[in-house]
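Sequence design from tokenized structure. All designs in this work follow the same two-part layout: the structure record, then the generated sequence. An example of the structure record is given first.
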């Protein structure tokens, strides 16, 4: 799950990002409305958290343009504006939910989970591959119903491979799913994460196969019972 957080208060933005990354989401932080408008046009996000009072372009205008492009990703508005007409306007402009500052991080996380759950068709919340099950909302993976302890990066890696099972996923796609903008990424780091992930999922009969020059895909190993 890749989230875009548009918030010009740096301290608040860092606090929210830290909590969401710990929960296993990939988070991109953007500080201005104009940059948000540009980033959203690239269409790679699963959810938008949007402040309204933003430099360069107001949050409501960012939202209006997003919906004018027929982009349907869920939008949570985050703002100090608690006047009724702002709230109504935000929802009329196509926001899915609204949280007024100050708020508690657990509430923000619960709202995000609820929005993702609503966005996905009922059957898609849980994705299976072999003995592995990924709860995309609860952010957990089990193998034969035992919880597998994965780091946030390993979870993001496994998620993109499971969501595109039977397709080869190239390194650029993995990086896009696992890292935010401006994060230092080496191709070696991807390999390290793949190595760690393999060790954790191979006991359940699933591995990550490297296809030379193309990328990676999940495979069920033959020797599992
Ligand atoms: Ca603001």
């Amino acid at each position: 799950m890749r989230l875009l957080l548009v918030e010009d208060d740096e301290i608040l933005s860092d606090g929210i990002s830290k909590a969401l990354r710990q929960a296993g989401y990939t988070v991109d932080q953007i500080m201005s409305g104009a940059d948000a408008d540009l980033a959203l046009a690239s269409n790679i996000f699963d959810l938008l958290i949007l402040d309204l009072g933003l430099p360069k372009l107001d949050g409501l205008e960012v939202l209006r343009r997003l919906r004018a492009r027929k982009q349907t990703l869920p939008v949570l508005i985050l703002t100090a504006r608690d006047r009724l007409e702002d709230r109504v306007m935000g929802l009329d402009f196509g926001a899915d939910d609204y949280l007024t500052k100050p708020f508690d991080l657990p509430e923000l996380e619960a709202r995000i989970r609820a929005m993702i759950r609503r966005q996905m068709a009922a059957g898609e919340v849980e994705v299976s591959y072999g003995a592995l099950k990924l709860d995309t909302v609860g952010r957990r993976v089990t193998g034969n119903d035992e919880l597998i302890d994965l780091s946030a990066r390993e979870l993001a890696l496994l998620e993109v491979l499971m969501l595109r099972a039977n397709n080869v996923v190239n390194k650029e796609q993995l990086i896009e799913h696992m890292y935010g903008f401006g994060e230092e990424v080496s191709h070696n780091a991807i390999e390290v994460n793949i190595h760690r992930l393999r060790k954790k999922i191979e006991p359940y009969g699933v591995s990550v196969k490297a296809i030379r020059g193309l990328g990676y895909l999940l495979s069920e190993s033959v020797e599992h019972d």
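The chain has two domains: 2-119, 126-219. We note this feature because it recurs in several other targets discussed in the main text.
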